[in-house]
């Protein structure tokens, strides 16, 4: 049997370890770990003197099976911790035990091993972990209690009977991510706060990348020791050189590699042997080659953190440890903007744009081909880095989007998180076999991830800079009600149009505000929103008008659009008006050279845009972010399923499209309303169904290749009487011939509106819940909204409001609450049954007193997805 490679993970001090399942070949190491326990640890483990250690070690290291599982933690090749469980006979309980070397006990080894046991146990259907612990063994009791699982321990006596419930629990995920963030930040300190640096491959020629990296480092103010590895020079830019990594005078904490691919791989290996803790590989040409494989292997073997390869580099402006290990063309100002980007070009463009605005960065990490350090790592770093007040991401791919969503959501609660959308095309969409799958494009899935995590998403670097400027110099708006004040009527109208396109609300100015404006403005001025002061007003009069609008309680934000005239320049009055006010104000100066600039150079009064549409777009994004911040985080509780285990048992082992009868049974087990349904095989008699259902009924063909039943002639409505039911059955047999598998027979449903509700599960992103117009409107109108499961009540409300037709749809008497409940039940089904690859409820008939699915298709795939929240590094 081949031994599983396991996965790299981080301890609390940032050290990289390997966690993997144990096998018989590990018996000697397990025995060695137990024999070197202290006297007290031995007493705690065995409640006295041990006996039969050889047999115990062999049992722990037995191959994983239905009743046994064990994992070990390896630190620099040595086994330093073991945890295992043994399933109790005929139960879903397992007894758990663990042993950790005293030398690493404070580093979180026990907790890390327990998390891996929990993840595996849940996959196998276990419900509880049990343990018997001596009352005086406080350390182990704390490990179990602090895991984040529901925990109980008996009271009294020399021993404690411990019970840990393995149910999915947000509190447990929060605890895991908190531990992950602490460990990750500790490991990234080697990268972002290095005590010493080596530049490997810096050349004497100014035009080379390595020379540029060294020059930027020299100019950055880094105060730690620096050496260069270059066999052809003794000194470059005043920095001493040595011929090889082995000959460095000290082991650097961080090394940056700027060499051709074969030499780069060798350098990374040498860094690992030397004990370097973090490496930045700027070199390209590694991915997809044996040299790239060597780099990955070295990172795994020696426990290093790695950025790249094929990247721009890394910089930090932390006053305590400033450094620049990039080949940017100019220095970066210190600031509060943290950036992680897969694209070096995006990093360069953003750095230049921010410099032009006078804004600076806290950190810049260019991940390149992303062998190790990723956007998720930086989200965890920024959580603890209070210098970073705006987080910016450019991600071309997601290694672990479910973890990303939880991390980004946590960070976005405290500061804005921005992302540039990439890969919005649908070329990667697989052939869709259901309406839901057709709607669940990669772009829709990614956008749902961003929206639910509170990420402010943009499509271009220019839009990104627009939003950063708005966030940097103004408060978040208190709501969507916007007023436009302009001394040029056309600019005001364009601004109002842009606001309405972006979903903002044009505020109704109060009578008092309009009276105040009438007193200060010319008679020909427009005092309703948008306010047109006319071009003839002075800067002072324009300022007074702006103050009047800002004082209106019905206004949340203002766009002030001004043009210079021979009479004066009202734009010069804005700076004096804005500081005392506590509402968001953006300036617009049509024709200014820059797309966005500070209203007053060198100050942070507000952002001034060259076009009203840009200002409105930024304002709309900030409004949506503010609304997200104010949404309740609590999940709406559904009545518990009567028998969730029966639902899981039904799904176990299934693959492919369910038969219509099985699909109906799936909905019954999931408590999802479905119209009464009978299914008749193509070769069977229709007599029983015709007699049971009475009339009128609808007959629906189940035929190979028939997705659009109505358009394909597979639906016969309002069939009355047993004779006509039999005749309709024969018609479908004739129409579809050998392709007909069977016929679904249902009573005619009451009239109502038809919707589509479905699920499309992605092995990386997880299940996506889709809502849209159903029936014949599904493909004709293609009006859909989507959110990733699990849905909260707020998510369900956003789905209900997310259709283009939502306003008209819910203006009538339709039972919105019933559809909301259905969405939450479908989300629960997707979470409970990860094997569910596609679910298509189309149509769902909605009435004034409820909703019911009229048709269902469901497809299952084996669940091969990895636990997205298990702590491990990329391999």
From TrEMBL:
Q: Which UniProt keywords apply?
A: Acyltransferase, Transferase
User: Can you tell me which residues the record assigns to a coiled coil?
Assistant: none
GO MF term list = acetate-CoA ligase (ADP-forming) activity; acyltransferase activity, transferring groups other than amino-acyl groups; ATP binding
In this chain the N-acetyltransferase domain maps to 17-169
Keyword Transferase recorded: yes
Q: Could you tell me the EC number(s) of this protein? A: 2.3.1.-
Q: Where is the signal peptide?
A: none
Q: What is this protein called?
A: Protein lysine acetyltransferase Pat (EC)
- Organism equals Amycolatopsis camponoti
């Amino acid at each position: 049997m081949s031994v599983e490679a396991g996965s790299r993970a981080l301890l609390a001090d940032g050290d990289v370890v390997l966690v993997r399942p144990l096998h018989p070949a590990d018996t000697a190491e397990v025995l060695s770990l137990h024999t070197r326990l202290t006297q007290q640890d031995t007493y705690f483990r065995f409640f006295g003197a041990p006996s039969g250690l050889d047999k115990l070690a062999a049992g722990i290291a037995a191959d994983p099976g239905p009743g046994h599982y064990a994992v070990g933690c390896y630190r620099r090749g040595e086994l330093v911790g073991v945890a295992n469980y043994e399933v109790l006979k005929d139960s879903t309980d397992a007894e758990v035990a663990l042993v950790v070397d005293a030398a690493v006990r404070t580093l979180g080894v026990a907790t890390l091993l327990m998390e891996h046991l929990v993840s595996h146990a849940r996959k196998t259907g276990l419900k509880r972990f049990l343990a018997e612990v001596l009352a005086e063994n406080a350390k182990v009791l704390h490990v179990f209690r602090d895991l984040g699982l529901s925990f109980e321990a008996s009271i009294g006596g020399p021993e404690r009977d411990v019970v840990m419930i393995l149910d999915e629990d947000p509190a447990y995920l929060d605890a895991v991510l908190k531990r992950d963030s602490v460990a990750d930040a500790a490991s990234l300190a080697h990268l972002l706060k290095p005590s010493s640096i080596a530049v490997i491959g810096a050349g004497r020629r100014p035009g080379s990348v390595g020379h540029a990296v060294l020059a930027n480092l020299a100019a950055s103010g880094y105060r730690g020791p620096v050496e260069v590895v270059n066999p052809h020079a003794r000194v470059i830019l005043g920095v001493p050189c040595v011929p090889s990594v082995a000959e460095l005078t000290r082991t650097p904490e961080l090394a940056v590699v700027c060499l051709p691919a074969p030499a780069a791989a060798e350098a990374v290996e040498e860094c690992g042997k030397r004990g370097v803790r973090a490496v930045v590989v700027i070199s390209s040409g590694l991915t997809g080659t044996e040299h790239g494989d060597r780099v990955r292997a070295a990172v795994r073997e020696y426990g290093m953190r790695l950025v790249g390869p094929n990247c721009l580099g890394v910089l930090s402006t932390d006053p305590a440890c400033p450094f620049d290990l990039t080949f940017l063309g100019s220095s970066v100002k210190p600031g509060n903007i943290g950036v992680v980007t897969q694209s070096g070009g995006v990093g360069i463009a953003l750095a230049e744009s921010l410099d032009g605005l006078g804004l600076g960065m806290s950190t810049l990490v260019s991940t390149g081909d992303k062998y190790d350090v990723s956007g998720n790592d930086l989200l965890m770093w920024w959580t603890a880095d209070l210098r970073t007040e705006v987080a910016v991401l450019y991600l071309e791919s997601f290694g672990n989007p479910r973890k990303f969503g939880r991390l980004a959501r946590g960070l976005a609660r405290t500061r804005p998180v921005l992302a540039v959308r990439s890969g919005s095309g649908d070329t990667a969409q697989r052939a869709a076999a259901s309406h839901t799958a057709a709607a669940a494009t990669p772009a829709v899935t990614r956008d749902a991830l961003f929206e639910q995590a509170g990420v402010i998403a943009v499509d271009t670097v220019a839009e990104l800079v627009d939003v950063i400027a708005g966030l940097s110099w103004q408060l978040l708006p208190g709501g969507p009600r916007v007023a436009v004040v302009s001394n040029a009527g056309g600019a005001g109208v364009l601004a109002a149009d842009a606001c309405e396109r972006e979903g903002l609300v044009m505020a109704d100015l109060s009578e008092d505000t309009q009276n105040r404006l009438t007193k200060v403005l010319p008679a020909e001025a427009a005092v309703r929103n948008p306010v047109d002061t006319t071009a003839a007003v002075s800067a002072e009069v324009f300022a007074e008008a702006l103050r009047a609008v800002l004082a209106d309680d019905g206004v949340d934000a203002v766009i002030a659009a001004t043009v210079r005239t021979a009479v004066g320049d009202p734009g010069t009055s804005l700076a004096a008006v804005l500081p005392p006010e506590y509402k968001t104000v953006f300036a617009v100066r049509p024709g200014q050279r820059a797309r966005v600039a500070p209203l007053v150079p060198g100050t942070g009064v507000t952002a001034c845009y060259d076009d009203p549409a840009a200002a409105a777009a930024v304002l709309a994004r900030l409004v949506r972010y503010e609304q997200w911040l104010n949404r309740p985080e609590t999940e709406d509780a559904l009545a518990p399923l009567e028998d969730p285990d029966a639902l899981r048992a039904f799904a176990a082992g299934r693959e492919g499209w369910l038969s219509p009868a099985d699909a109906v049974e799936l909905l019954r087990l999931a408590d999802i309303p479905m119209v009464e349904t009978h299914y008749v095989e193509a070769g069977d008699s229709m007599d029983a169904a015709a007699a049971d259902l009475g009339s009128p009924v609808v007959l629906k063909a189940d035929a190979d290749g028939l997705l659009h039943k109505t358009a394909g002639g597979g639906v016969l409505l309002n069939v009355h009487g047993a004779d006509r039911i039999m005749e309709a059955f024969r018609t479908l047999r004739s129409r579809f011939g050998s392709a007909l598998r069977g016929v679904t027979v249902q009573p005619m449903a009451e009239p109502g509106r038809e919707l589509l509700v479905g699920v499309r599960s992605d092995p990386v992103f997880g299940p996506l819940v889709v809502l849209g117009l159903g029936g014949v409107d599904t493909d004709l109108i293609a009006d859909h909204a989507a959110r990733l499961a699990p849905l909260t009540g707020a998510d369900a409300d956003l789905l209900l409001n997310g259709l283009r037709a939502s306003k008209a749809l819910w203006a009538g008497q339709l039972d919105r609450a019933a559809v909301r409940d259905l969405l939450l039940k479908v989300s629960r089904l997707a979470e409970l049954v990860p094997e569910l690859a596609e679910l298509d409820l189309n149509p769902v008939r909605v009435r004034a007193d409820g909703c019911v699915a009229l048709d269902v298709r469901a497809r299952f795939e084996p669940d091969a997805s990895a636990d997205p929240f298990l702590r491990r590094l990329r391999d």
